[in-house]
Amino acid sequence: METTQETGRGQYLTFDIGGHDLGVAVLRVREIIEYETVTRVPSTPAWIRGVINLRGSVVPVVDLGVKLGLSDSPVTGRTCIVMVDVDLDGQRTTMGVVADAVSQVIELGPDDLKTPPTFGSWVRVDFLHGMASVDGAFVLILDIDRVLSARELLLAAEAATSPAGEAS
After folding, report:
1. pTM for the full model?
2. Helix, strand, or coil here: 89?
3. In angstroms, rounded to a whole number, what is the distance separating the alpha carbons of residues 133 and 112?
4. Which whole-number Å values give the CA distances from 51 to 1, 9, 33, 71, 160, in the listed order?
5. pLDDT, mean of residues 114-123
6. E strand or H helix at 142
7. What is the side-by-side order of every strand in the sheet holding 20-25?
8. DSSP-based helix, strand, coil % in the chain, nearest 5
C-alpha cells in the first residue's frame, strides 16, 4: 500500500464499475480523462478495450469490469478513463482503466483498511490491498499491480505497439 511515511495514511481515488465501489492509490493515478474513441485491437483479450492516442503516446485501455468478471458497461456521459501507472518489470507503464464514474478521493489510515474475507468477494482477494467502509458502503482498494499483472500488461503493450494498434 502506498502511504505517507509520517502518518501511515494514504489517499485513494474511488470510482464505480458495474455498481461496485473500487479504489486505487492516488499516487498511481496520472490523470482522469473523458471517455473518447478507443480503437479496438484484434486478437486481444475481451478485457482490453483497445488503445487511445494520449498526446502522441499509444496507451492501452482496460475494461476492469470485464477483467474482474462483470458484464461490459455501456458508455455514458459519466464514463471516463483513469490513467494509472503500473509497475512492469521495474518500469512504470501508463494504462487506462475504464470507470463508469469517478466518485471521490478518500484518506485512509492503516486501521481503516480491513482484510477482505476469503469468501463472498467478487474480486479475487490477491487483487486487493484491503477494504474500507466509506459512508456506509464498502470500497475495495485494488492492488493495481496485481490486477494488471506483468504478463497481462505485456499482452496489452504488444497490442498497443502492433501495426493494427495504431490509435486515431
Report:
1. 0.80
2. coil
3. 8
4. 28, 34, 14, 20, 6
5. 68
6. strand 137-142
7. 101-108, 10-17, 20-25, 137-142, 128-134
8. 15, 45, 40
Residue 154 cell numbers, joined? 505485456
Residue 97: strand pairing partners: 62, 82
Task: Name the amino acid, one letter, at 109.
Answer: G
| Dihedrals phi, psi of 150, to nearest 5 degrees | -60, -40
Residue 123: what residue type? Answer: V
pLDDT at 138 exceeding the cut of 90: no
Query: Per-residue pLDDT tens for 42-84?
Result: 888 888 899 999 999 999 999 988 888 888 878 999 999 999 9
3 state SS for 56-80: CEEEEEECHHHHCCCCCCCCCCCCE
With residue 46 as reference, give the H or E element that holds it.
none
Beta strands 91-99; 48-54: pairing state: unpaired
Q: Catalogue all structural domains in the chain, each as residue range(s) with its CATH number.
A: 10-159 (2.40.50.180)
